[in-house]
Design a protein that fits this description.
This protein is an alpha+beta fold. It has four helices and 13 strands. The longest helix has 17 residues.
């Protein structure tokens, strides 16, 4: 019980110092390859870091000048705990065994596939990799405390050695896959489907706008749900019932 009181005190201190905490009822969901973890206790805060890779160079006649760079990868960090028992007004859902959460998150980190982090009532809905996941017990309650660090995952088209028929030079962008099969697993949403639809067909600088366009198109389609199989190409998406969406 002392550990819970300590955790609540930290949460209150965080709310007081920052002016606000996470929204009431805020849910954090980490999903990967059709499986998901809903964190049973929302952290009192989370930290988002954005790097923009600006640099400083020295010019003899001017001195130091700032060179604007391209954006780096977003990182997200937060800490909380997996309860070994129910705590009124703290636990969002009926919790599983603390180490079942630990095992699932560790399995996500080792699947070789990006995860998706979604935080309700915020703008966080991001493909991520798991950079670090630390956990420990520190009292006699069997609760497992953890901290996790996630890094944005961006799909990229690799270089290709295939020669262009006209110029005879190697292409800077790989030949696109002709089709990608997308299985709509539980825990995925329309934005996940849109991201998978464009991720391996378009270069990075076009992905965000294209993903939003595909999302809007899918949102108008009535016969999409969990279990649907979609066949995506660069021009269209074919749904399992033979409906074709062109974009």
């Amino acid at each position: 019980m002392a550990s819970i009181l300590s955790f609540l005190n930290q949460a209150v201190d965080s709310i007081i110092s920052s002016g606000s905490g996470l929204n009431t009822g805020c849910k954090l969901v980490l999903s990967c390859a059709g499986e998901s973890v809903t964190f049973p206790v929302s952290p009192p805060s989370f930290k988002v870091s954005n790097a923009y890779n600006n640099s400083t160079i020295n010019v003899n006649s001017l001195g130091d000048i700032n060179m604007l760079g391209k954006r780096g990868l977003t990182t997200i960090k937060f800490s909380s705990f997996f309860p070994a028992q129910a705590y009124d007004d703290i636990v969002n859902t009926t919790p599983d065994s603390p180490y079942s959460y630990v095992e699932k998150i560790n399995s996500f980190a080792q699947k070789g596939q990006p995860c998706k982090l979604a935080i309700s009532n915020t703008n966080i809905n991001l493909n991520v990799s798991i950079d670090t996941f630390d956990y420990n017990e520190k009292d006699g309650t069997s609760d497992v405390y953890f901290s996790i660090s996630l890094r944005e995952y961006r799909y990229v088209l690799p270089n290709s050695n295939k020669l262009n028929n006209t110029t005879g030079l190697a292409s800077r962008v790989a030949e696109e896959r002709k089709e990608k099969v997308i299985n709509w697993y539980p825990g995925m949403d329309l934005m996940d489907v849109a991201a998978q639809s464009v991720g391996q067909f378009f270069p990075i600088d076009k992905q965000d706008a294209k993903q939003l366009s595909v999302f809007r198109t899918l949102a108008k389609t009535k016969n999409l749900n969990v279990g649907t199989v979609l066949h995506a190409t660069k021009q269209s998406i074919k749904i399992s019932d033979d409906t074709i969406i062109n974009f």
